[in-house]
Structures are given as structure tokens and as C-alpha cells.
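Ex. 9. Protein: DUF3054 domain-containing protein.
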Amino acid sequence: MKRYAPFGIDLVLVIVFCAIGRRSHDEAVLAGLVKTVWPFALGLILGWLLAMFVARSTRFDAITVWPSGILIWAGTLVGGMTFRAISGQGVALSFVIVAATVLALFLLGWRAAIRALR
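Predicted C-alpha cells for DUF3054 domain-containing protein:
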């Protein structure tokens, strides 16, 4: 896999998560997508930085489920919810649960699939 492909895959999946959420609530998908994506995109970056920091003494492998995938997922979720709260966007418990589940499926799922195929 190319060096930046895993981050690109994660970012596309975060955008898809946000688009699905907007669509499921009958909100204009494209018109408000940036408003919905930016907190999770920043959380994704934080998750990546956390995963790279933890792996600083070893070789960082972005496509492993543990620890990279879990740290990236956790950073995306916690960071995304934190930035949503700071910006006055909703962080209802039901949304946190759905976001945690879908982001885990997306961000960990493709990594698990790669592992299973190897």
C-alpha cells in the first residue's frame, strides 16, 4: 500500500459516514457536509498522530487493527465529538453510540479485511 493511501481511505470513510448521517436526517448532504465533516477530520488527524506517537519506538504500520486502527478510531471519535461540542453541534448519547459503531465498522473493518486477505 502506498504511504498515504491508508489515511486517504480513512478520510473517505469519515466523509461517507458524515454524508450517510446527513442523508438519514433528511439534511442537504453536499450543502452542509463540510460543517459535519470537519470535527471528525480533525479527530482523524489527532488519531493518526496518536497512533504514530505510540509507535515511535517501533515501525508504524497504519493498516494494523491493533494498535494503529484502534487509536485512529478512538481519536476520530473522541476528537470528533469534542470538536462538535466546542462548535455547538450536537453530541447526544445516541449519536455518540451510532458514531462509535459506524466509525469502528469503517475504520477497523477495512483494516481487518486487509489482514484477513493476507
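Check your answer against this statement. The two ends are 12 Å apart (CA to CA).
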